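Quick start: what a row looks like.
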Amino acid sequence: MNQWIDIKEALPQHEQRVLAFIPGNKVFLPGKSGEFELREVIVLHFIKDFYPAESEKCQKYGPHFWQGEGNSNHFFNDVKYWTPMPHPHLS
């Protein structure tokens, strides 16, 4: 079983696809007025050094970025833990 890794301890490889834990992450439902689901574990791609070091966004959000699938991008500090995508065990 995969272990959750704190982003303060280690980071994924550039462009690695991972499961990410985002406490309190709300995903708004399509066609609904403000209704949402709580989805704290989602699939993201880690993008290393996304923002230039001197940029305002780097200073505010950190240098890295989490690229989502669909409409679920996140700033670096949104994610607290990550784990590699599990591999299926086929018989």
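That is the whole record. The beta strands are 5-6, 17-21, 26-28, 36-38, 41-47, 65-68, 74-75, 81-84. The chain has a mean pLDDT of 89.
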